[in-house]
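Form 12-C: Joint structure prediction
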Amino acid sequence: MRIILPGDKISDNPVRMENAIVENGKTYATVMGMLDDEHGSFIPLESVWYPRQGDFVIGIVENSKNNVHTVQLDSPFRGLILPPPRPRFGRGRDDRFGGRPQREERQEILRVGDVVSCFVKDVKREADQIILILERPRRLFGGKLVEVRPSKIPRVIGKASTMLKQLEDGTKCTILVGLNGIVWMKGENVPLAQKAINKIQEEAHISGLTERVTELLASQNGGS
Amino acid sequence: MGGGKNKPELIVDGKRTDGRAFDELRPIKIEAGVLKNAEGSAYLEWGNNKVLAAVYGPKEAQPKHIADPDRAIIKCRYQMAPFSSLEEHNRSGPNRRAIEISKVTKEVFENVILLDNFPGSEIDIFVEVLQSDGGTRAAGITAAAVAVASSGIPMRDIPYAVSAGKAGDQIILDLNKIEDNYSDADMPVAIAPRNNDILLLQMDGSLSKEQVSKAMEMIQKAGETVTKLQRDALEARYR
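Section 2 - Result
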């Protein structure tokens, strides 16, 4: 593993990969990262979140108009939560005589300032900007929001969510990690969870992170 | 650039006013990631120049009407602190010189940052000169390049900038304040080192074709040192 900086050559051949560009048949890095020459994998040390379909995100409702909610995601792109489609027939049909949306189509009532977690349904290019269509919004009550650099998010989650599970167990908190770099936490020991996440952010590139986080959680929990 | 009766001797006994060789850079020190709130930042000392650079974004372009639907826009602010030099820089707001340097710095980064990835958004680059001693635009661009690289904003290359000039018949590298004021020519150049693409080339005074070639040669050679220092600063954060 070696550190690669923007403009450094990754490969002599054109390789289609994230955080890289192909120029004159060669592949060059566009961000700082660690390159594994053996496997040809490139892990960014710093990067900007670029939305993809299915990404789990956390944001704050910024505006609400005609049942369309705008969500601030701490990214250049704005998220939109659209009202659920209205069924035309059947029990959930929408008419003036008491038709109600069916249960799965009913949506949380959101107000400006609410913290919501959603999934990215679609990344749309509108007239003047990119808009993210969000789905399955869930309102988050209370708790605390923490910003994490998007490139460190995979480390906060860990392989098969091991790190996240460890954090949740060690601090007795519920932690939701948005890929856009916003983490929501609520529970018994929020300051400790925040401390641990800061540690992960600062030391994400140094191996043996899991052990150090375990140590931190154990020492703060009275050595238990 | 200046002249008149009080023009000091810029080269005495084959050496420059500060004792440097003609192709010698001033000592440079770069540190990346010095500001916690910025996405990327860098602090640079280049001789007596002290420059702080910070990068924010990409974020939604504000006001809306300046947004470009196809690419991100860059806003750049170069500013000298009121206490940065012996001369007066204490007017509030940017002056004509600061507006010009902000513009050329912005154009340097428009050519290296992958703006197409973030349509409708903006990237802010701030360059604050805390102490100045000639060549602050070169120092500002070099510092801002490290700041952008440390922010994770995708870019093609890490540019550097160095100036060269002419004192008498001699081409000199990296002009300090006195040389800047009284030399016969001053030429700051910004380069993307991978392909040696020239991103900025300005000139005060006059140079012959051969002199420009020689100056460019000196700048590119010095660029290797500057690039190495930029890389070391970035890598030092992860060692």
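Section 3 - Comments
The domain at 2-44 of chain A is CATH 2.40.50.100 (OB fold (Dihydrolipoamide Acetyltransferase, E2P)). The radius of gyration of chain A is 21 Å.
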